[in-house]
Design brief:
The protein is an alpha+beta fold. It is built from 39 helices and 31 strands.
Length: 1218
């Protein structure tokens, strides 16, 4: 094969036009601990810190490199391709320390060198010049982030060629490229394992080769080297089928759980990644119903573990607390009959189903002197102990459905489940009900996905050798069982410059990477004999691309547009067409793949169908039940790509008819997880972007916000000037300074006591801040300043819910306005200058930022897949994002649309369908509580006051105490005493007021009621008083306790406004509401007093019966009178008490302003500004566009959806295989 140079020049270093520099790579956990660190790392200067970190942590060989290498001469290999080995045969330094790679050049050289070396040995090049051109071009493309192979290539390829690294065989096999003989490997690395994707078969056998237990061993070999595997388990008999020796089989699910646990225990090298695995079940399997609901039930188990463990800890420690609170004989503390608090705690525990065994165990602990119990609690992190405890968490699940099943669903027909042992009907069910189960499971937990069996096999190039039954973990590689595919992806944005897509460079790269992937098949070893033989016979490849979302945004087109879909389809058609044409070229030189002859006519039929789609034909397809989406010539923004697509497929079919093809498949669209980070792609695979604002990592640690690199280019393309673009971008990213921020700025902060030192500290922290409230804390400002100048108590500063800005008196609106200015909105919706018709260009998979509302529709994901699928040999790995409010019917409709458009597989992800991921907003207010009357009714009369007091402490004190510092009453204060008789029992109510007349305390005493009840009411009053002093509005108490029912109750004597009450508390809070809140709706008789308007006086209603008072009179009245005694009835013509301004909400002072209205006066005490909700790491990550899960490798909450997998944008870890 002739290899031309396009990016490099002959007799010039491949890196001549690329600048390199040295940097430090460091990845830390959220707590600051170091996960990985390496100094003096050499990478291209254009690479981001994340790309540098990923190649250093993931892909640099850490050990085994000798510092004294020699070239091994081979007569039939050019000198520049001679492999290297340690001079002394050892791979360690003399002092016993291992060396590792420290330069990206070393990695590029070993990859490209190994490919060129094996390509030469396999007869791929016409001359040494061609081999050298190939070697240089490949190195350049890797360094320029134009292309990248799948992760196993980075891990394994070239280690033996470049460094002589070797080791004992791991049970692998390969087919010798010269003899065609299946051979057992005797080396770990001479023949590398570069393949990412495997499909393995399993037979209905327990322990023999090819059986169930053997599969776990084969999977382990793959996981160890960073690869992923998928298997269709439908050949395994169902749970009620007979065994040869008698009895019934334990069924498919029992074995799947074993395999799941085995996969969860294996990581490549202990650090590289989680196991990547796909489990497939045919829709007619006897156990398919249980399979569909598997993960739904496992998620329910996690929810139970989390909730149950936390309830256990709470309720069991409540028992300890009740024992500690006992103030009597020590031996009675442990007796529920004597200790009423303990009795209630035990009842409370039993009410939530705490096992009695644990209750008694706690009592026994307490008697032995223990003061508390540490009950292990679980959380919903995806890598937590709760998830690790249940099954099904280490695989993607898919159901394989047929056209006949989907038609049965349409017609509401019956569906038969078939036994695997004898082919008889195991069970007959309604197809529609089973389809609804699939939709519900996908809606509830994002599994299973759906694979369309007949569509997949209609595009099968080798049907003479059997049906396609399986796929890899991400569903993009679909071929015969016991085959493998190695992937590579091209970064589309690197081929776009100066407003033009460089199609010639794109086709050049496609040709070279097709050669590279074919060479990888030749040089590889495989984990089993069957896979080694299958891969040799069919030689399937997986070339694809990444960053289509970034490219479309750069070009100014929406992901959900006809132009966007047509551009995607054209790029896909060119790539696959050129790749098949290259495959036919290689077949001319090296011969077609061994399985081609038997399948020639089938494969040529598939090629002609691809060609028809490229030509834009809507009819004339051969052997297709579901027609593909043809290339949209009309809407493609690049006319040159249309012509190239047509010519590429003309050539691919013509050359194939003449020479056959070297490869049965050539293309897939992979998720490009880790390699997408190495290439600095904004978007992965065929995905749209997940956020418009990214957090760019700095070399010294930390992050700063940047706009998606595609946004400025898109704005320029759409016609916005530089100044307008800067304003739009600042709207999204923020200005990073408080200098000119509204409301909260340097001027207002100086007014609160901030000095230049504090302002400088704040300014230095703002560029990386997600929210300004995270900057205003004792760690940024210093504890001395917060305690001394600002006067904030230490315990308040240490409270995780403390909000310093609210404490300073800034309102929620003021904080949000400043936040938008400083930290940005993280969306472009509402940006200045941006036209609404351009919003769609910047739509992402999810809503962006705090105020963003737009996101891509479900159909837009599916139609983009369909546009590309017509030109892909394999399939497409993609997440179809759905909003949280999507219904089960929406899930079914998405599956049905995918089928109708010719998509081969579909994986849905509904926002919030995983327990581990937070929703965008809370469903209900945390303070909503159940009806309290039932609890009171079930409580003994003597304990009711205590129960009510506990409820006050729980509902009001605990939940409201963090909102404001306690406001102490003056030593000498006003108030009033009200005596009344409720149901025959005397009740004395005494109040205490602040200087402004606001109520701050109550005292309750009862005459001859009994010491126990009297004491409880006294304690209840203390609880209410504490709540009032912490700023809890009196309205909260009134709403909670009016109309409560318990004895004493009945007629009320001695109160001029209240004549009956349903309980003592009903009476007390009616009285307080009437006196302090003017709640005349709770009075039976309208209150009257010396200086207020009485409403309801016929024609005199609304008119004052007094003369207007002056300010001196008002001041005198306030000094000597109790607001409560006057029942808040001061006329509006006199005054209105209003809440203080926003600047002094926490000052404890209430402004008095002259009345201007004519409505009845209602004075409302100043209430503290609501504390902004505190964001935990998950919620913060969700708002940043991430999934809300923590990475299993580095612990950072920077996971994003990536095809059907997830990847970490901090360390590059993935849950997939690319």
């Amino acid at each position: 094969m002739r290899i031309e140079r396009r990016f490099t020049k002959e007799n010039q270093d491949a890196y001549a036009s690329i600048d390199f520099h040295r940097t430090t790579s460091e990845i830390r956990n959220p707590d600051g601990s170091v996960v990985f660190s390496l100094d003096n790392v050499e990478v291209p200067t254009t690479w981001s810190q994340v790309a540098s970190d990923v190649i250093a942590q993931k892909y640099f060989r850490k050990a085994g490199l000798s510092d004294d290498l020699v070239k091994i001469e081979e007569d039939d290999v050019p000198e520049f391709l001679w492999r290297s080995a340690p001079r002394d045969g050892e791979q360690v330094k003399p002092n016993g320390e291992y060396l590792g790679e420290t330069s990206a050049k070393q990695v590029f050289n070993r990859l490209a060198g190994a490919w060129a070396y094996w390509g030469w040995k396999g007869g791929m090049f016409d001359s040494e010049t061609d081999a050298r051109s190939y070697f240089d071009e490949m190195r350049y493309m890797l360094a320029a982030q134009m292309t990248a192979p799948n992760s196993p290539q980075w891990f394994n390829t070239g280690l033996h060629w470049a460094y002589g690294i070797d080791g004992p065989s791991q049970g692998h096999h390969y087919v010798d490229y010269q003899t065609g003989v299946l051979t057992a490997s005797n080396s770990s690395y001479e023949h590398p394992q570069p393949h990412a994707c495997f499909i393995q078969s399993v037979t209905d056998d327990l322990v023999n080769e090819g059986g169930i237990m053997d599969l776990w061993v084969r999977e382990a070999r793959l996981f160890k080297y960073g690869s992923g595997t998928g298997t269709n388990f439908s050949s395994v008999r169902g749970s009620q089928e007979s065994l040869a020796g008698g009895g019934k089989s334990s069924g498919l699910m029992s074995f799947l759980k074993i395999g799941d646990r085995a996969a969860g225990a294996i990581k490549s090298g202990g650090t590289t990644r989680r196991a990547a695995k796909m489990v497939i079940c045919d829709v007619d399997h006897p156990d398919v119903e249980e399979f569909i609901g598997w993960k739904v039930k496992e998620e329910q188990k996690v929810a139970s573990l989390v909730a149950g463990s936390k309830l256990h800890e709470l309720k069991l420690n409540e028992i300890f607390a009740a024992i500690r609170a006992w103030d009597g004989k020590e031996e009675d503390a442990f007796d529920p009959k004597a200790n009423a608090g303990l009795k209630n705690a035990i009842k409370s525990a039993k009410k939530v189903m705490i096992p009695e065994t644990y209750v008694y165990r706690v009592l026994q602990y307490a008697k032995q002197g223990y003061a508390s119990i540490e009950f292990p609690t679980y959380d919903t992190d995806w890598d937590s102990e709760a998830y690790n405890t249940v099954a099904g968490q280490n695989s993607n699940n898919s159901v394989r459905v047929t056209d006949s099943f989907l038609k049965a669903v349409e017609n509401d027909d019956d569906w038969e489940l078939i036994r695997r042992t004898d082919g008889k009907v195991s069970k007959t069910i309604k197809a529609k009900e089973l389809w609804e189960d699939i939709g519900h499971a996908a809606w509830a937990c994002a599994d299973p996905g759906v694979q369309y069996h007949d569509t997949i096999n209609a595009w099968h190039t080798c049907p003479a050798d059997g049906e396609i039954r399986g796929s890899n973990p991400c569903s993009e590689y679909m071929f015969l069982d016991d085959t493998a595919c190695n992937l590579a992806s091209m970064n589309l944005l690197k081929f776009y410059a100066d407003g033009e897509f460089d199609a010639d460079a794109y086709m050049h790269a496609t040709r070279l990477w097709t050669i590279t992937l074919e060479t990888s098949v030749m040089m590889a070893q495989f984990p089993s004999k069957a896979i080694a033989q299958g891969s040799y016979d069919y030689r399937t490849l997986g070339l694809g691309y990444a960053n289509i979302g970034g490219l479309l945004m750069n070009m100014g087109y929406s992901y959900d547009s006809d132009e966007g879909r047509s551009m995607c389809a054209a790029l896909t058609a060119v790539m696959t067409g050129v790749s098949y044409a290259t495959s036919a070229e290689m077949a001319k030189e090296l011969g077609p793949f061994p399985g081609y002859k038997k399948n020639a006519q089938h494969m040529l039929r598939v090629m002609r169908n691809h060609k028809r789609a490229a030509l834009g034909k809507k009819a004339g397809y051969e052997g297709l039940e579901v027609k593909p989406i043809p290339l949209d010539h009309k809407n493609c923004p690049d006319r040159n790509l249309i012509k190239l697509a047509e010519s590429a497929w003309e050539e691919a079919v013509t050359l194939g008819e003449q020479h056959g093809y070297r490869n049965a498949q050539v293309s897939v669209i992979a998720p490009t997880g880790t390699i997408g980070l190495v290439m600095d792609c904004d978007t992965t695979g065929i995905e749209p972007d997940f956020a418009l604002v990214k957090f760019k990592k700095l070399a010294g640690g930390g992050y700063f916000k940047i706009i998606n690199q595609s946004v400025p280019a898109a704005l320029a393309k759409l016609g916005y000037g530089t100044a307008q673009s800067e304003e739009i971008i600042s709207y999204a990213v923020g200005h990073g300074t408080m200098g000119n921020a509204p409301d909260i700025n340097h001027t207002t902060l100086i007014g609160h006591g901030f000095g230049q030192e504090q302002l400088d500290k704040i300014e230095s922290a703002l560029p990386s801040a997600f929210d300004i409230r995270f900057v205003f804390n004792q760690w940024t400002l210093g504890a001395d300043f917060c305690n001394g100048t600002l006067g904030i108590p230490e315990e308040q500063l240490n409270d995780p819910a403390f909000d310093l800005l609210s404490h300073l008196g800034f309102s929620k609106k003021q904080v949000e306005a400043a936040n938008h200015h400083v930290c940005g909105t993280m969306t472009l919706e509402g940006a200045p200058h941006l036209k609404e018709e351009h919003y769609s260009v910047f739509d992402c998979a999810n809503q962006c930022g705090r105020i963003g509302k737009r996101y891509l529709s479900v159909d837009s994901h599916i139609t983009m897949m369909a546009a590309a699928q017509s030109f892909i040999s394999g399939a497409i790995s993609k997440t179809i994002n759905m909003p949280n409010d999507a219904t089960i019917e929406d899930c079914q409709a998405a599956y049905e649309l995918s089928w109708s458009l010719g998509v081969k597989a579909n994986a849905l992800y509904r926002d919030g369908s995983k327990l581990s991921q937070p929703l965008s907003s809370a469903l209900i207010d945390d303070e909503d509580e159940d009806d309290f009357e039932e609890t009171l009714r079930d409580t003994p009369a003597g304990d009711r006051a205590q129960v009510l007091a506990e409820r006050i402490v729980e509902k009001v004190i605990i939940k409201e105490v963090r909102k404001q510092a306690r406001e102490r009453l003056p030593e000498r204060r006003k108030g009033y005493t009200q005596k009344a008789n409720v149901g025959g029992h005397k009740v004395y109510l005494r109040t205490g007021e602040y200087q402004d007349g606001k109520i701050g305390e109550i005292f309750i005493d009862m005459h001859k009621e009994g010491a126990g009840f009297r004491a409880m009411m006294n304690n209840f009053a203390i609880a209410v008083s504490v709540g009032l002093q912490y700023g809890v509005p009196l309205e909260e108490f009134v709403d909670a306790f009016t109309f409560t029912r318990f004895d004493p109750a009945g007629m009320v004597q001695g109160n001029d406004s209240i004549k009956s009450a349903t309980s003592i508390l009903d009476y007390i809070f009616r009285e307080l509401a009437i006196s302090y809140l003017d709640r005349t709706d709770l009075a039976h008789v309208q209150p009257e007093g010396e200086s207020f308007d009485t409403l309801g006086r016929g024609v005199e209603e609304g008119k004052s019966n007094i003369q207007q008072a002056n300010e001196d009179n008002l001041a005198m009245i306030k000094q000597v009178s109790s607001t409560g005694y006057l029942r808040k009835r001061l006329p509006q013509e006199l005054m209105v008490l209003q809440g203080g301004g926003q600047g002094n909400l926490f000052s404890g002072e209430t402004a008095v302003q002259a009345a201007t209205g004519t409505d009845s006066a209602v004075a409302v005490a100043a209430q503290p500004a609501a504390v902004m909700p505190q964001l935990d790491d998950r919620a913060k990550a969700k708002m940043q566009g991430y999934e809300g899960d923590a990475c299993g490798d580095c612990g950072n909450y920077t996971l994003v959806r990536n095809g059907t997998c997830m990847k970490c944008n901090t360390c590059g870890g993935t849950s997939g295989c690319s």
